[in-house]
Amino acid sequence: CHTFENSLAMSNKENPSDFRNFRMLYYEQLGLRNVDQMKALEHLLKEDPLDVDKIKTFTQQYLLPSVYRVYVWKVLLGIIPVYKESVDFVTNHRNQQFLDLKQALITMKMVSPCSHSPKTAVLAILLEHGNLSILHNTHVKHYAMKVYILDSISEITFQLTQNETDTFWIAKEIFHAQEMFLSVFAKLPYYVNYYLQVEDQRLFQHLSEIQLFKMLPYDKWFQTYFASVFAESSECLCKIWDKLIAGSCHILVFVCVSLLLTYSIQLKELNCDAALKHVNRVLPQQCGQTVVDKAIELWEQHRKELTAKLATHS
């Protein structure tokens, strides 16, 4: 993706006056002045058409205000069109598409007419993908891992939106993003080791000695975007998903490193089986906030370096 400086330069060249707030944000990063980032984001969201690249850059660089999170996610995921005049038409069409799928599920007796849960969104996605068995009123067993991933993603999304339709569309598009991320996921464990060694040499040595790195559930963590770990602290995890939805799956490295650092004292005293059980449990909310805050701190500190390393990693 473009660097913040490059995006700034391109935007200034295209329309200097409209991009004044973004320029001010850049200056704030240099410590030159204080700027209201909320107003800067509001300025970007008022543009017509919306500039998705600018919004991505903002989301990667700054914390996204929770009041705008669902809207920004839908813009970045292509659920909401960039032209304001098309929003109502597209939204109505998408709502009807989900309702048609839900009605089919009701007819199949897989959900009730009164259902209001993330499970409905998961089943609708599976139905659309042709992964449901009409004869057995269940999903095809071959897709068990897919169902687990969708369940995890949809649960976090539903906690945020409290809306089946939004959950369906957001979870569906986040899941589809894995097609872009899967080739990167395979490289991330190497950098978990690298940055953990940078942050805590003693912890890294102990986990290496007990061979924990070979046992960590990287596939589950990365493919669910840590939803399975943050089931009780979804609001915290959304700050990580902001970066993911903006196209930066590299932050998952630092979520993993932060998780291990948070349990550092305990892990240094445990064997492999006990350590694996310890890191594989659901995080309580307060602990989840600690992990996310540290992950974002590490992300901001090492993001450019990691991006460069991954670009040359074969």
Automatic annotation (TrEMBL):
The keyword Cytoplasm applies. It is found in: Cytoplasm, Cytosol; Cytoplasmic vesicle; Lysosome membrane. InterPro entries: Rab-GAP-TBC_dom (IPR000195), Rab-GAP_TBC_sf (IPR035969), TBC1D7 (IPR039842), TBC1D7_dom2 (IPR043039). PROSITE patterns: TBC_RABGAP. GO terms for cellular component: cytoplasmic vesicle; cytosol; lysosomal membrane. One of its GO terms (biological process) is negative regulation of TOR signaling. Keywords: Cytoplasm, Cytoplasmic vesicle, GTPase activation, Lysosome, Membrane. It holds the Pfam family RabGAP-TBC. Non-catalytic component of the TSC-TBC complex, a multiprotein complex that acts as a negative regulator of the canonical mTORC1 complex, an evolutionarily conserved central nutrient sensor that stimulates anabolic reactions and macromolecule biosynthesis to promote cellular biomass generation and growth. The TSC-TBC complex acts as a GTPase-activating protein (GAP) for the small GTPase RHEB, a direct activator of the protein kinase activity of mTORC1. This is TBC1 domain family member 7.
